[in-house]
Amino acid sequence: MAPRTSAKICGMGHSMKRKEDPRFLQGKGNYIDDFTRPGMLWLDIVRSPIAYGKIVNIDTSKALEIDGVLAVLTGKDLEAYNLHWMPTLMSDTQMVLPTDTVMYQAQEVAGVIATSRYAAADGVAAVEVEYEAMTPVMDPFKALEDDAPVLRTDKEGQEDNLIWHWEAGDKEATDKIFDEADVVVREKMHVPRIHVASIETCGCLADFNPVEGHLTVYMTTQAPHAIRTVLALVAGHVGLSEEKIRVVSPDIGGGFGGKVPVYPGYVIAIAASVVLGKPVKWIEDRMENLQADSFARDYHMDAEVAADASGKIRALRIKTLADHGYADAQAAPSKFPAGLFSICTGSYDMENAYAEVDAVYTNKPPGGVAYRCSFRVTEAVHCLERIVDTLAHKVGKDPAQLREENFIPKEAFPYHSPLGWEYDSGDYQAAMDKAKEMIGYDDLRREQAEKRERGELMGIGVCSFTEVLGAGPSKDFDILGIKMFDSAEVRVHPTGKAIARFGTKSQGQGHETTYAQIIAEELGLPAAHVQVEEGDTDTAPYGLGTYASRSTPTAGAAGVMAARQIREKAAKIAAHLLEVGEEDLEWEPGTFSVKGAPDKSVSIQDCAFAAYTNLPEGMEPGMEATNYYDPPNLTFPFGTYICVVDIDRGTGEVSVRRFVAVDDCGNIINPMIVQGQIHGGLTQGLGPALYEEMTYDEDGNNLAGSFMDYLVPTAVETPAWETGHTVTPSPHHPLGAKGVGESATVGAPPAIANAVVDALAHLGVTHMEIPIRPDRVWGVLNARGVAK
Amino acid sequence: MIPPPFDYHAPGSLEEALTLLGRLDDAKVMSGGQSLLPMLKLRLATPANIVDIGRVPGLDSISEEGGYLRIGALVTETALEENATVAARYPILLDTAKVIADPLVRNRATICGNVAHGDPANDHPATMIALRATMVATGPDGERSIGVDDFFHGLFMTALQPGEILTEIRIPSPGQHSGGAYLKLERKVGDYAVAGAAVHLTLDEEGTVTQAGIGLTNLGMAPIRASAAEEVLTGQHFGDHSGLRGAFRRVREAIARTPSDDELIAAASQAAADATDPVADRRGSVDYKRNMARVLTTRAIHKALERAAARTPAGG
Amino acid sequence: MARHNVTVTVNGEAHTREVDSRLLLVHLIRDELALTGTHIGCDTTHCGACTVLVDGVPTKSCTVLAVQADGAEIGTVEGLAGADGMNALQEGFMQEHGLQCGFCTPGMLMTGTALLAANANPSEAEIREAISGNLCRCTGYVNIVKAVQYAAAKTAADGAGEDN
Known about the structure:
- Helices cover 28% and strands 25% of the residues of chain A.
- By secondary structure, chain A is α+β, with helices and mostly antiparallel strands.
- In chain A, α10 packs parallel to α18 (743-760), α14 (511-523) runs parallel beside α15 (551-578) and α15 crosses α16.
- The radius of gyration of chain B is 21 Å and the shape is globular.
- Chain B has three domains: 7-51, Uridine Diphospho-n-acetylenolpyruvylglucosamine Reductase, domain 2, CATH 3.30.43.10; 62-172, Uridine Diphospho-n-acetylenolpyruvylglucosamine Reductase, domain 3 (2-Layer Sandwich), CATH 3.30.465; 177-310, 2-Layer Sandwich (Enolase-like, domain 1).
- Chain B has a five-stranded antiparallel beta sheet.
- The termini of chain B are far apart.
- By secondary structure, chain B is α+β, with helices and mostly antiparallel strands.
- In chain B, α10 packs antiparallel against α12 and α12 (261-274) packs across α13.
- By secondary structure, chain C is of the alpha+beta class.
- Chain C folds into two domains: 3-79, Roll (Ubiquitin-like (UB roll)), CATH 3.10.20; 88-159, [2Fe-2S]-binding domain (DNA polymerase, domain 1, Orthogonal Bundle).
- In chain C, strands 2-1-5-3-4 form a five-stranded mixed beta sheet, with helices on both faces.
- In chain C, β1 (3-10) and β2 form a beta hairpin.
- The radius of gyration of chain C is 16 Å and the shape is globular.
- The mean pLDDT of chain C is 96.
- At the A-C interface, α1 and α17 of A face α1, α2, α3, α4 and α5 of C.
């Protein structure tokens, strides 16, 4: 679709170069560790080496002898202020610092406050903690057995390790279909615990002004406003009421969901600043980040599909065990404890479905966050897209063809899924056709057949996912009761330049550019003249933040609505300036002209000047508007990904030869940025598919606690992604746009896994657990006698 | 991650360095620092003193003289990669350097440091075993040479004594008909080896293997020499089975069941696998690692034979 | 713990500081010299966010002591742009969308600078190998490769122009 605006205005559809880039490219970004304050102190944290045990004694004397170490805060110290615990976003509770028991390895045990980061680190090394170790519960299945020790003895009425049970769909009707179906396939699969591992770790600078009783927290948060409210709720009783708290989220070095939660380190830094009356900075290191910050996924799924003999899917049934670690600290702000897992019926029309999830406590760090996806969508899509391949294999059909035969037809939108979603729009066949054409699907199948004859292992994997994002409609989504709207505040200055502030927070998505383009699209002001600000709770309108690909669907829409309010006012001013009736005006981006007399016109800039200098009688001066947008529905982007892999029969190594991603995210604001989001998402899908996994031994030791073993793909492992798109606008978003940031993370893992399984399908292989490590593949090859 | 406190010393000469090492308690030698500094930051090492030999002159040269390639203590992996003699005559060294850590680390990491660290996961030790290198240690009483087979004693343990510095590695210059290769299986760039195999073969005029060197990486508590595998290959003739010689060979194979090339290489590779003693970890099971020793040895033998065949006598 | 006088020339400007033996070069640059464009992303020398040029050689500054750099010429991201604005590599990153959150970007730029100094026209494989010690979590590397290629092409075109 050709852009409606000129390159000068640079509205929707232009690949505008990013406004934020010059500062990042010249070393002038402002990330959390770049902030400093006179007299600033440093916090470093003593962490538990064991996964479960009693704290017998904490001896701080040697630490306090170190030059520069000023204080050591323990749980007992915080207990005096009732700040030793905090609520999670799921209304569970979590320790800030323990008073008697540690529940996972790397848990915060004490905070050392010192005059430098070096002295603080020495202090941490010198704090002596004596533990009485207990046997941890690491296996979530064992956690539910009758003889398992109850871990959350601090919670009244908690008599086992079950956190909650959730279900969706009609069990009886679904079971009935399974009973009578021609074909039933079943796979058990684990989408393992992973970590976002943004290259910038978390941190904050808490600056309490004891004279004014005012707290400023500079903090790597994706949701500054929500954090301010949480802080006020947690610390209101010690005098920190909401008007005295300012949260500033500066430039963020990658978020991906990991910078949504409140971590104990933040609270300890704030408590230390309040107690000492000095600015206190906390920057976690990589090992702390990987070992203690929120994980993602960790769903054990038992999935079944019922179909007729031709492979027409009739029903889906999934039983899931979710390992939440020591606390349910999910960042899943919906009414559904398992988030949007019920999107699991995906792109396929079926008669019925039933999904259930049991969440359990174990001695692992609490979580989880949605690593670059809407809450639990990745798990759902992986489960479905894997088992659909098992079905194709069972009925002897090409996996692409089987998908096509089961797609929800484009005429069926808006489509009501068996588990209760209303998909806004879709044309799944178009994306499939484009992906097959781009990769040369039929030729690849021929090549595969020839290679199989020669004993070479090559596989082609297909995934046709449906995403659900843009949380969200207030009927279903809130954080601690706060509805999941988002906001924009647009002000046009007398000279026709503008500032636009939003309740979200960019972490690399390029909001300063795309939001400016949205305002440009609606007002006809050059995007270059629109300054975008986010992240400072003192200035930005209240919003719920950026995650779950919600910025464009919510705050972006709010920006549109605010700009439209301004345009309505501008139209009145234009009519006044042109001395005609409003109904006699025509609007082209940037210009009001008189119908039939195009030379009689005024620009939006003229109108802005007049809003301050030459108003119609009775009109309020100024030109600004605020909008809080509560979306009527979520958006449902989709796509088809096709992946080609080659497998080394000697070593089991999988190499991704080609990967084509065709995405449909509705109307596109900035094609360059959308493509960049897809590239990044694909790479964060490649990681979990082949490399990334957070594992523990039975004693509770983290086995992937640094970048030595938590394997983030480099440029060498990452293939040259090929992208394409189709456009099916969202009918309810004011720009027809959908979110896009996370589709690729969701769609890539099953495409890669399906390709590997496809390469081995003739050996009778129907499933491989991710990450598909070389040793796992070799094990399969060796067992089937084909390892070289 | 902050290193513990220590004192730092930067001697300007080898004599000064040795004097410092003799005088200071609990001192650790640092060259490139790419292994030591991460250990300090993790506080896995807490020496009271660090003697940085980075400013000692005369230790940064690579030269081929007197029948040896001599690699000084401060020669970096990058310098090795960029050296024309190494590229032309010691491709196995180039193979090895290129798969160590990542290019930025290799800009500072040294070959001698990689060897002196005594880490069986490091890559150069296996290659030095294959090449039958000699380690030159300099201490208060002067230089002494240590054969590679006497150098590695165990996990982070070597023949280097306190007060000694590994100042040079000497690698015998390859014969006219020789070739070698190092292959490493890693999970991704920057990883230690799941397994690694270094193979260096010296052939006579007729193409018979006169000496075989096979070293293995990260498959035991120390780098491993696969002696039995070397014996399998020694005295064998590979490759060119054309002409009269080939005809004889085929007849011998038929009558006396002389093993074929592939059978010999498979036997050697199995012997290499049998020499390993790996532990199961996130890189794989014991069975997997043993098999990878076998697979990599096979591939390295083939590559070494190819290289030996490709070398022209004039080019050396 | 001994203190040492260290003189480094950073982006052409000489600085002398008295530092502890154990001070890491990255902390000298960030905390003492307030050049915060150089970042820290890991503890184990894997991520490359701290990459600077030490006498022209791209180096992970979290794995070098400040005292080791005494007398060295250090290049950081702050020194790349000239009086006439961003250089060809910076421009390439902007034109090809080679950055998103920007955190790994300074390290990528310094590695890319050294690569182009040694190899004016690197292949895609050479670029990918050269940046394999710099982790990026946002871009998927495709556009970083293109950014380096952009700079190579622009520099070649500018050079050809000067020859005429």
